[in-house]
Specification:
CATH topology: TIM Barrel
Shape: globular
Number of strands: 12
Order of helices and strands: EEHEEEEHEHEHEHEHEE
Strand order of the largest sheet: 1-2-3-7-8-9-10-11-12
Largest sheet: 9 strands, mixed
Oligomer: single chain
Length: 244
């Protein structure tokens, strides 16, 4: 693998269709995994960690939470109470954000994205960008979500970062032109994989993870779709079982 620090002619890097990857958000990053793309937490990891992965020939995606407030983040106090909604089901330390409040949230997100850039990341994964389909405590609409997600994509590109659409299958077709690739969870489990076909049709990678079942059960479908799929633990620690 060869890491090329200069961005392509488009101005930012994006993973190639069919690439292999590692997604690790918990524990010390296992840099020994021989893949060309790593996706790691932007606030928990240092510029030195990113540089170390670059030295092994990998590009690195910066994970941030864009639609939820996490009480343990170093910038948690930046979020005023007015934008904090219901607690997320299954995540007691996280609350939904009122994504309609663009003037409040986008400056906070821009600081996070600028930090990703300063640490040397190549692209952005903005998580939790489908609040309008959930019980957030706010009357969010599909149009609110399109506006917020599009603004996040624009911010990533402002800083020369490629950007992934995270889940949001209902809006994948509409947002595919704004985003450079997709990161998807359990589309096989929930029968949503076809929603992301516009990305593959446009030559854009779909990086996909399943948490249940066996690779023998879902990999043939994923390979046929052109997705870069693997099985991971829900904790998103180091172990991975990739579709070959």
């Amino acid at each position: 693998m060869t890491y090329t620090g200069a961005p392509p002619a488009s101005g930012w890097w994006r993973p190639t269709l069919g690439t292999t990857w590692q997604w690790q958000l918990a524990g010390t990053i296992d840099a020994s995994v021989a893949v060309p793309v790593f996706d790691i937490d932007g606030q928990d990891n240092s510029a030195a960690t990113v540089a170390g992965l670059h030295s092994k020939g990998a590009h690195v995606i910066c994970y941030i939470d864009a639609g939820g407030w996490e009480n343990y983040r170093p910038d948690a106090a930046s979020f005023p109470a007015v934008v904090l909604g219901n607690t997320m089901n299954g995540w007691p330390d996280e609350r939904w954000l009122d994504i309609r409040a663009l003037t409040i949230l986008l400056p906070i997100m821009e600081k996070r994205i600028a930090d990703c850039k300063a640490k040397g990341f190549d692209a952005l994964e903005a998580d939790v960008v489908d609040g309008y389909t959930n019980n957030t405590g706010f009357p969010l609409t599909a149009a609110n979500q399109i506006a917020y997600n599009s603004a996040l994509a624009d911010l990533a590109h402002k800083y020369g970062l490629g950007v992934a659409l995270k889940n949001d299958p209902e809006q994948a077709a509409a947002l595919a032109p704004k985003f450079d690739f997709a990161i998807v969870e359990e589309c096989y489990q929930y029968g949503e994989c076809s929603s992301y076909s516009p990305f593959v049709a446009a030559g854009k990678a779909v990086l996909e993870v399943e948490y249940q079942g066996t690779t023998a059960s879902f990999c043939p479908t994923m390979i046929a779709l052109g997705f870069s799929s693997m099985k991971k633990n829900l904790a998103l620690d180091a172990p991975r079982q990739a579709c070959s």
